[in-house]
Amino acid sequence: MTATVPGLTAPRKARKLRVAQRRTDTGLTVVVVRKPGVPLVEVRLRVPFQSAAETHPARAALLSDSLLTGAGSYDRAGLAAAVQALGADLSVGVDADRLMLSANVLATGLPQLLGLLAIVLTEPSFDRDEVATERDRLSERLGIARSRPGVIASERLATRMWGQHPYALDLPQPDAVAATTPAQLRRLHADRVRPSGAVLVVVGDVSPQRVVDDTESALAGWTGKAPKPRMPALPTPQPGPLLIIDRPGSVQSSLRMGRAAIPRSDERYPALQLANLIFGGYFSSRWTENIREDKGYTYGPHSHVDHQVLGSTLSFDVEVATEVTGPALLETNYELGRIASLPVTEEEVEAARQYAIGTLALSTATQSGLASTLAALAAFDLGLDWVLSHPGRLLATGVDEVSAAAATYFAPSGLTAVIVGDATTITAPLAALGAIEE
Amino acid sequence: MPRPPKLPSPSFDLTHHTLGNGLRVVVAPDPSAPVVGIAVLYDVGFRSEPQGRTGFAHLFEHLMFQGSANLEKLEHFRYVQSSGGTLNGSTHLDYTNYFEALPSNALERGLFLEADRMLSPRITPENLANQLEVVKNEIRVNVMNRPYGGFPWIYLPALLFDTFANAHNGYGGFEDLESATVEDARDFFTRYYAPANAVLAIGGDLDVDDTLAMVEKHFAGIAKRRPPKRPKFGEPPLSAERRSTHEDAHAPIPAVAIGYRIADPIGSLDDHLANVLLAEVLSDGDASRLQRRLVQRDHLVTDVAAYLGEFGDPFDERDPTALTVIAHYPQAASLDAILAATDEEFARIAESGLDPGELDRVRTRIVSVLLRELDAVMSRTLEFAKFELIYGRAELIAELPERLRAVSEDAVRAAAAALRPDRRAVLELIAGGAR
């Protein structure tokens, strides 16, 4: 029996979203999008948090972990109970660019949640005992993180690419965590957790204009301006020999490679995005179809473009079985060389384009997806307009532009690379393929 | 403290239909975004795999992506992704799911792709050999090469349960996986992948009648086969404590998993919901009992979590399921103190009940989590299919907030009282990576 795969019918347009946005007197930007569906609301508050200070990663991480351990008249359990009673969850995360408070709440509880948020932003306790508890937990969690081969490899690659730049030192060191005090957290909070330059995104079953007003008044008492951080420019990563990091007995090798890329605002970005998909950015990519679906060397390779405020990165991650580490690198280099040297096909570009357009729609079709996307874009002064206009940019990108982006960014000679694995087994096969460093 | 908000219930229109070959279909229109979700759940999971074939249900899941009646290898992925969609599959204790989220203009294409592999997956020696290597690499990356890999889901059942069905490793041993044959896979397909042993759910931007017509067109031609008889897997509660250890070469600090058998979540749903509330009282957030006691007061553990179901979904399994408490802790000598404190907290709930407002806020949070699960078209469609398959009724999702509201504090106390030391299995993880 042979049947034909059904064609696509005419695409339906997404409904227009109702949006309200305001920059308040305190310098906070509030963006509210009405997105009904479930009677919930997603909240993201992005506070710029860059710093070149050596002590910053440990202080920032501990501040993030301690921020919800009490505020105003609430002790730790009292604050958590008040959040839970709203059907809410409130959490904090930090990286080298920003502090992010994330919440979801039943729509009826949004006003009270904003009230609790205001207290956390203006009157955090940083109680001595609670900070001590979180300091120990942070050290233990860092120990766990650094026992994972992928984390070891990523940290070493970051150092090799960015040297002593703060972007390479994102994950704090245990002794720096141990030396951090509640007074230092209070000072960091007072200096940097300020509304000027921060962005609050609210998405959900709400009336945008009213929520902008409510948010402005709920957070009116959160004031002040953070000093502009003096960050060094991001260095240009240097390609070099493959660095082998020994992890005796490892049953897989973790390969990580990277290079500098371009931001979303660059006119060549859509071409890079498509080239990345074709290479290793989705399942139907050359890298996956070769080393997973043909050779079975791995559960799955991934390449991706990541955007940080000071620069964008093209990265390659894969875990391959120890005994096929050499052949897996051979195939990887072959696919890199192929996409950098020969044009991609019209069919490949069209498939990647439809995937990019479709998954953008899927990821912004949920309240949480849209809120996270808008909070991430806000760091680059991009917003909903960018999401809505990006399909047009992808549609306007031709095969030649994608091939040109591939030639520029995927050349194997331009990558910085590290591998974590069982050195006694993998060193010789890797050395046979190119320069290594042990 | 603010007054607890009124609890909303989700609402949706479900249309049910059963094809002549026995395939059960659930259609759930929602025009809010131009996307659709398609989920096919087969009523077979790793509890049903035969002795000597551990991991087979999961290996077979991989083979369902290797081409089918009208599709070459790689084409299934390419058709979904080049239509702008995403896809995956996963193997659970009691079922295996396959699903795709697509722009709504690809609905019929998605239905065709699912029908084509329900008709006949391409099970060849080459595909089997290739996916055997992929699965071994999946196990290496998720279990063998990382700290706490497979802990506790692979190792605790072996201590907590007695029968092969409940106790064995669902990822499978390499020897068992390597001995799997094309013949085994064809037999497994014939036996368990009958249309009458599956549920198809479709949600999102669609017209119900058009969708049902497409379903008839693509699925009705698949021959009817008798579905297998589902065995009973129930095991009574333990009557004496069990203890064991698990060596983890990579873990820097020890961990413990404490498991309790939980009977019949479907037949005794209200008792089960009391357990769901109890797990939330125990470990959700900084106001929960075990966080306050073990993390904040006694400083015994780095983190602690209590959950139902092997992968943390309380509605994912039939009889039996499990309640698990897991903790990571820096000092190996703390284990007895952790167990004693945990028992004290269970006893405190059983004897003194809950604090004023405690049950209400926990209930409110659970309802909020249930609603959030229904926002994305894909997870919503998967939930419809799962409740239809496991509970026999997708509509139950909309009734859960009311059913939760009806659970009394006494029921939660009774659930806590059942977590006695003689009913638990304690698996201690020995940290081989400690420096």
Number of strands of chain B: 11
**Separation, N- and C-terminal Cα atoms of chain A:** 57 Å
Number of structural domains of chain A: 2
CATH topology name of the largest domain in chain A, in short, is Cytochrome Bc1 Complex, Chain A, domain 1
CATH architecture of the largest domain in chain B, by name, is 2-Layer Sandwich
Q: Any guess at the CATH architecture of the largest domain in chain A?
A: 2-Layer Sandwich
Mean pLDDT of chain B, as a whole number? Answer: 96
**Main sheet of chain A?**
6 strands, mixed
Work out the oligomeric state of the chains in this entry.
heterodimer
Count of DSSP H/I helices of chain B? 16
Strand tally of chain A, please? 14
Largest inter-chain interface? A-B, 87 and 93 residues
- Report the portion of residues of chain B in β strands: 15-25%
SS content category of chain B? alpha+beta
Instruction: Name the shape of chain B in a single word.
Output: globular
Question: Which fold name is given in CATH as the topology of the largest domain in chain B?
Answer: Cytochrome Bc1 Complex, Chain A, domain 1
Which of globular, elongated, flat, extended, rod-shaped describes the shape of chain A? globular
Strand content of chain A: 15-25%
**Gyration radius of chain A, to the nearest Å?**
24 Å
Number of helical segments with 4 or more residues of chain A? 16
